[in-house]
Write a structure and sequence with these properties.
Layout lengths: L5 H9 L3 E6 L2 E6 L7 H10 L3 E7 L2 E7 L4
Antiparallel strand pairs: 1-2, 2-4, 3-4
Length: 71
């Protein structure tokens, strides 16, 4: 069974409406088109991975950050 890269899976989900990248063991998603962005699908994917999720506003764009929980 082939492991699926979560960043690649998220890139497929957002279909060019955001930029996805690995960052320090987690994921950063910079939303470029918030009106068409698949918010529910992305949050459900991140939360189903057990990640902690938070949002920030950077240069006028919403950025979703996630990471595996810290102990």
């Amino acid at each position: 069974m082939t492991a699926v890269d979560p960043v690649q899976e998220l890139r497929h989900l957002v279909k060019g409406l955001a930029e996805c990248a690995s960052m320090y063991g987690g994921i950063a998603i910079k939303v470029k088109d918030p009106a068409r962005f698949p918010w529910n699908e992305v949050f459900m994917k991140l939360l189903s991975m057990g990640h902690e999720v938070w949002l920030e506003l950077e240069e006028g764009l919403i950025v979703i950050y996630s990471r595996p929980p810290t102990e």
